[in-house]
Write a structure and sequence with these properties.
The protein is an alpha+beta fold. 21% of the residues lie in helices and 34% in strands.
Length: 290
């Protein structure tokens, strides 16, 4: 089996553990990608299994490349919460035979594909097919979320939201989060969005500080197309992908967010269910204590 080990180079314990795993996995074709940005090296190596040592951000960094390669990803937690890096080093070693045999439980995690287009000043309503031209200005993918942030000078922005062929609302806010079920425990949760189980294939639309008492987060099918037309933006308004990278958003452009054709196959810890993670790490539904 071709195995890529991707440690977070800023975590000394992760680097030490990667050396230990090289010895443990000696009978396989292994590469250690101890790099700030390992995505291109990962694509060149084309592994069947990617072992990530770090926090959830380490998984987000390689998610797009691993999804395109259809590689299984297993995360060993050297960070804080560890929703995506669900294994401890000891648990990974314990379940290694099952992982290498391909018998470890996994979930197909929805990823988002967002494309930015020029508006070209065409008036009137246009269909999703007309709006998704073949040559976007820029595009990117996200495992957790695609976020529009108001940016400097930090005044509210105005966005028009279209879901499939339906014009839904125009609203003023500090931005918008479009998240997956994986991302429902991240930025969207902090902004008041709902929790979704990781096997729910849906998108959550969560406004950031909307200038409205009644704009609640909305859950839509992952088969939907989310089109965002700007009314008013700030010079510093940006679109970001998993908080990893991003680009500017301008008033003569629009953004289309859809399901990526490449989901991420994430191996799950048999000792730790999604509900265990919520209860242990977010204290979900915990009763008050004296």
């Amino acid at each position: 089996m071709r195995i890529a080990i991707v440690p977070n180079i800023n975590k000394p314990k992760a680097m030490t553990a990667s050396d230990e795993l090289v010895e443990l996995l000696g009978g396989h074709t292994i590469v250690v990608l101890a790099e700030t940005d390992p995505r291109q090296a990962l694509i060149r190596f084309a592994p069947e299994l990617v072992v990530v040592l770090g926090g959830d951000g380490s998984v987000l960094r390689i998610a797009n490349a691993a999804a395109e390669l259809e590689a299984a990803v297993v995360g060993i937690n050297f960070g804080k919460l560890g929703y995506l890096t669900a294994f401890s080093l000891e648990q990974f070693k314990e379940h290694l035979p099952v992982i290498l045999d391909g018998r470890c439980a996994s979930t197909q995690r929805l990823m988002l594909l967002a494309a930015l287009y020029h508006n070209h000043g065409i008036p009137g309503r246009r269909s999703v097919a007309e709006l998704t031209a073949p040559f976007p200005i820029y595009f990117g993918t996200a495992l957790n979320d695609v976020v529009i942030n108001a940016g400097a000078p930090f005044r509210m922005i105005e966005l028009q939201l279209q879901i499939d062929q339906y014009d839904t609302t125009t609203f003023r806010s500090d931005g918008l989060i479009v998240s997956t079920s994986s991302g429902s425990t991240a930025y969207s949760l902090s902004a008041g969005g709902p929790l979704l189980a990781p096997d729910v294939h849906a998108m959550v639309l969560t406004p950031l500080c909307p200038h409205s008492l009644s704009f609640r987060p909305v859950v839509v099918s992952d088969s939907s197309a989310i089109i965002i037309h700007p009314g008013h933006l700030n010079p510093g308004t940006r679109i970001s992908f998993d908080g990893q990278f991003g680009f500017g958003f301008h008033e003569d452009q629009y953004l289309v967010i859809r399901r990526s054709p490449h989901p991420l196959r994430l191996l799950e810890n048999p000792h730790l269910s999604h509900w265990d993670v919520l209860a242990q790490k977010l204290l979900w539904a915990r009763s008050p204590k004296q």
